[in-house]
Sequence to fold (289 residues):
Amino acid sequence: MKPDCKPFIERLCESLGEDLSSPLCRELREHLDHCPDCSLQIDSLKRTIDIYRCLPVKEIPGDVEKRLWKRLHLPEVQPGKRQL
Amino acid sequence: MTLEITDKELVAQALKGDQQAKAQIVLLHQELVYNLALKLTGNADEAENVLQETFLSVFENLDRFRGDAALKTWIYRIAANEALMAIRRRKGDFSFRSESIDLSEASRYARMLRSLDRNPLELLMDAEFKNALETAMSNLPDSWRIPFVLKDIEGLSLQEIADSLKTTVPAVKAALHRGRNALRDHLADFIEQHQDSPEKKETSS
Fold:
């Protein structure tokens, strides 16, 4: 098993509702150590999740923001005066 | 210089009718709400509606904010509920579909991993790649997308997700598995079709 697969196995076991030291998780780890195909399955899923987590936050489109503030009856705040 | 103001102080001012305090609450949280709504509904129009309904609900119920959790967490919960209600209105209750998964694609996943290992930063800078990821997620059935977003992106527990969706933990696990597999396969497809990899260059030259 690749070293960076360990956190994923932990998450996988957690998803299965299993403790990391449970027989099922131990069995999973042992199998993955010797099975390149299953390692590929797990590793490719891990990378997919990682990439989705890295997707940047989307800015709210200007017209969407305008309609929100109008519906809330709030005064528009100029970008330069925003206190964030 | 801007003074730090606590959530409780900001809420107290907003409850007194201070429009600037209300504006500040919206400014601080509108991006979080919009992004969550967009991911959960997979639809820009619905996300806008959820955004508006969330803040209407926030201001209607502001006197119930006790300050036990951060204002951000409180607003997040309202937004997640609004998004789930919007999806229920659209399609009735959640249905957990099942679909067989093709487990015989090892070589395709190996190519995908090689490509991701080679240029992860380049890929994330690529607008077409980002668009493909977002489209794949929004095209998932609601019953797969929502557990994926709530668990893998937002970090909620399986029990929290099951409670929110009024279903069981095993049903959430099954849906999560389907969603992850479907997204991984979309990603592998995209890489196969669009990646101008050195391997392809070598074979084409």
